[in-house]
Amino acid sequence: MLDPSSLYHLEPDVAASVLGTRPALIHLFDGYIDAGSVTHSTARYLLDTCEHQVLATFDHDQLHDYRSRRPQMVFDTNHWADLTDYALLVHRLLDVNGRPFLLLTGPEPDSQWNRAAAAVLQLAGQLGVSQLLTCAGVPMAVPHTRPTLVTAHATDPALASGNPMWIDRVQLPGSFSHVVEYRSGQAGLLAQGFVAHVPHYLAQSNFPQATAAVVGRIAAAAGLDIPMDPLHQASETNLANIEAETGEDAEFPAMVAALEEQYDQLAANGGASVPTAEEIGAAVEQFLADQDPPNDFRR
Fold it and tell me: N or C: where does the chain have the smaller number of CB atoms within 10 Å of the terminal CB?
């Protein structure tokens, strides 16, 4: 393996500001399952609400397949006027109380996953990271009118107890975040993730209820004070918009009512009935096939 340290460049002054603070490192990559735009919206929300500086820049040119995800360019009359390129960055952010934490975000690497994961863990070691955190959204047969369920996973199973038992054991296509978490466990470093259950009929739309659910779990796990009011307000607006857009759909209320009944029954029974591995795997494969890359995590 080539030297992982050559994949990134640290900003010395910003790096010095987090040494000794034991910051959490949140890693959120575009390119994998993102029902309800949970991963992307969480990264965007943290950057929009928290003071931040670039701490490290990855040499994403070594990791990116440009023919798979092409950068956007602007042609103006007779010349190329602009290029919006991709970037994989680590930001240092501050919560409401000035506590630093780190956010690694950008496109999921297309290649060199083992080397890139080693680089992330090497960077975490250099900066004294206390734990790694991530989140995602998956499409599930749940209603938008009930609280968002969240499935936790962790390198320490004791931290992932109390999950809604809608998923047992299943084999799925892995993501780079999954690899980072797995390698963290092998290295003895704590890593956790939170997966929001997004109504399958809203999987291709922003679903701020799910974003709020995972941001709350991440903040609690890392001991961070993150403003939540904007997400709660967006959730209320989203619910009103759904009602307005579906008010004349004769079939929609019956579908939601059926999902509510199933949700309530499973909650009452402790989630004894779960989808089969084949059903979950097929749903994930279909969702991945339908994805378009987001456009706003670029240079």
Answer: N
Whole-model pTM?
Answer: 0.88
Question: Given this model, what pLDDT does residue 290 score?
Answer: 58
Q: How far apart are the first and last CA of the chain?
A: 28
Per-residue pLDDT of 65-103, as tens digits, reads: 999 999 999 999 999 999 998 999 999 999 999 999 999
| Count of positions (residues) in the chain | 299
Per-residue b or e along 101-131, where b marks 16 or more CB atoms closer than 10 Å to that residue's CB? bbbbbbbbbbebbebbbbbbbbbbeebebbb
- Cα 285 from Cα 172, distance rounded (Å): 8
Q: What is the per-residue pLDDT across 165-196, written as a single tens digit (0 to 9) for each? A: 656 677 888 999 999 999 999 999 999 999 99
Q: In this structure, are strands 89-94 and 100-107 parallel, antiparallel, or unpaired?
A: antiparallel
Distance CA(207)–CA(221), nearest Å, equals 22
Q: What is the dihedral of CA 158, 21, 58, 50, to 10 degrees?
A: 90
| Cα–Cα distance, 212 to 215 (Å, whole number) | 5
Question: Strands 79-84 and 191-199, how do they pair?
Answer: unpaired
Cα Rg of the chain, angstroms: 20
- Which residues are paired to 191 by β-bridges? 132
Average pLDDT (31-55) is 96
